[in-house]
Amino acid sequence: MHLLTLIRTNTYLKIMARFLEKRMKRYLLGGIRYILKAPAPETTDSLVGIEKILIIRPNFRLGNALISTPVIDAFRERFPSARIDYLATDKTWPLLQQRPVDHFYLLSRAAILRPWQCVTLCRRLRAQRYDLAVQVSGGSTSGYIVTRLIGARYSMGSRKGHQRWYSIEAEGKSSHAYDAIVNLTRPLGVACRNRPLLQLTEQERYQAMTKIQQLVSLHSDLSSDPGFIAIFVGGHQDKRWPLAFWLMLIDAMEARKIRYVVFLGPEEFRLLAPIEQRLMSSLYGSLCPPLPIRHFAAVLERARLLVTPDSGPMHLAAALDVATISLVRQKKSLAFVPREANDTILWRPEVSTVIEAIRANLDGQNPTTPVQPASVTNQPTQWVTPPNADHLYSSY
Fold first, then answer.
1. pLDDT at 8
2. What does the alpha-carbon distance between residue 50 and residue 81 come to, in Å, rounded to a whole number?
3. β-pairing verdict for 173-174 and 393-394
4. Some GO term, biological process aspect, for this entry: which one (predicted)?
5. N or C: the chain end with fewer CB closer than 10 Å?
6. What pLDDT, in 10s, does the model give residues 40-57?
């Protein structure tokens, strides 16, 4: 098994790797702040003659990349004739296709073991002489380091603490990650979508329908109705749910004759065998093997709704305007879950509660009031809400 794959799929190795990564970034950040003086404060009125813009979000998590997507359109609207480049990762780049970006620079996970690649990339970016560098996530140390090192004429990002980090700073505190993107673009005076965005091609939609028909054909009596509930089994560490929960949910879906498709990510390979075995006698469910991310997105777009933990596919559903039932285990997840009128947020639910929420959604009734940005206390008490969730998301 490749070393990086081993780290991603082993909880203890992942925790240790993140600790070392944060420690290294902290030293780099301290060195940069010591060597480079804080940028002079500017306002958006200073943004004249902007011809080259770099949007910076080198993160490997699908959800974080999706959350940033509305920024691209906002800057394109504000600077229609400018060249807009984007620093992403090779893992998240497919999600940014079809957006109005002129050129992508990609960071690979291999750079973790080959740091000289990062140095080469920064030199290439610095040579472009950007007029404006936009750091999308105020909490991203790597993004901030790139922002300072490339030497753009202006830098822009979310306010962080009492020190100045960027020449143009937007409001840093938000109760939800989606609102942080809106706050970042508000000084531009243009509209910004308050949830992720993904644009599929007609070819991708056609391929998705073919895949769905293959899955549905496993149950010939249901082939006339390709509608299904998507269930994503996965998530990071403390956000994921145990295998026993998913097996009980599968049994409950079968008992209530609800058509469903189970999706697993590439890091959930240990769950494949037991779920596959449980579905061998299924009358209403199918298992979809891991797909390329855009192919998976096109299939997900056809789902009636998605049942999921706090995960990348959760944000993917939000980007596609697919209804979600978010299964929340940690308070911090409440700052990331979709919160539109057709979305449902369940706090540590029992399987019976999930089934009830699915039924209510299929019947056109949302069983919960949409969660407001600063609080979750308006949810019905039968679903046992966590403590107050004010200011869950912040760039501090």
1. 58
2. 9
3. antiparallel
4. lipopolysaccharide core region biosynthetic process
5. N
6. 788 888 899 999 999 999
What is the CATH code of the structural domain delimited by 202-394? 3.40.50.2000
CB–CB of 233/262 below 8 Å?
yes
Closest CA to 329 of 319, 317, 340, 314: 314
What values do phi and psi take at 337, rounded to 5? -70, 145
Question: Could you tell me the two tokens for 98?
Answer: 């079809």
CA 36 to chain centre: 32
Contact 304, 364 (CB under 8 A): no
Most confident of 10-19, 148-157, 252-261: 252-261
Phi-psi region of 36 (alpha: psi -120 to 50; beta: other; left: phi over 0): beta
Angle between helices 243-255 and 272-279 (to 10 degrees): 20
Asked if 29 and 145 count as a contact pair (C-beta separation under 8 A), the reply is yes
Q: Which residues contact 301 (CB under 8 A, 6 or more apart)?
A: 200, 205, 208, 320, 322
Quote the pTM value.
0.84
Rounded Cα gap, residues 191 and 210, in angstroms: 36
41-188 CATH, one of 3.40.50.2000, 3.40.1080.20, 3.60.140.10, 3.30.70.1050: 3.40.50.2000
pLDDT tens per residue across span 141-186: 778 888 888 999 999 998 776 677 889 988 877 889 999 999 999 9
